[in-house]
TrEMBL record:
This is Nitrogen fixation protein NifX. SUPFAM superfamilies: Nitrogenase accessory factor-like (SSF53146). Residues 9-102 form the Dinitrogenase iron-molybdenum cofactor biosynthesis domain. Gene3D superfamilies: Dinitrogenase iron-molybdenum cofactor biosynthesis domain.
Length: 134
């Protein structure tokens, strides 16, 4: 699965969803995590709140989880409607430690929230692969 991290430096989760200048995108599996890339947001002057949320959703729309320091209620609702689970972590949490935690959860018995997300992701992949769940 792909996981996004709201970051200002590519090393720590240190940004609010609506103000994050970029997202570090990792591919995470039971065997480990690897950085796919840093997706930077274009600077748009005088962008309203809805525009900020929308531009960030476009950048992370292929992700299953998004780790952030903070997220507003309306942004959280929009993110979850896109089938992305927002995960709040303490400011400055190292991304590599968060990736390690996800890998450990995948290797063991994932907590209920992660099991639900993985189940939904598997169903979506099954539907797109064989076309029988249209």
């Amino acid at each position: 699965m792909k996981v996004a991290f709201a970051t200002e430096d590519g090393i720590r989760v240190n940004a609010h969803f609506g103000q994050s200048p970029m997202f570090a995108i990792y591919k995470v599996t039971k065997s480990g995590g690897e950085l796919i890339g840093l997706r930077k947001l274009p600077t748009i002057l005088n962008q309203d709140e809805a525009g900020k949320i929308e531009s960030r959703l476009e950048v992370v729309e292929d992700c299953t989880l998004i780790f952030i320091m903070q997220i507003g209620a309306s942004a959280a609702a929009r993110v979850t409607r896109h089938k992305i689970m927002p995960v709040k972590v303490p400011p400055g949490s190292p991304i590599d430690e968060q990736v390690k935690r996800i890998v450990e959860m995948l290797q063991g018995k994932p907590p209920m929230w992660l099991a639900k997300v993985l189940h939904a992701e598997n169903e979506a992949e099954g539907a797109s692969v064989d076309g029988s769940h249209s």
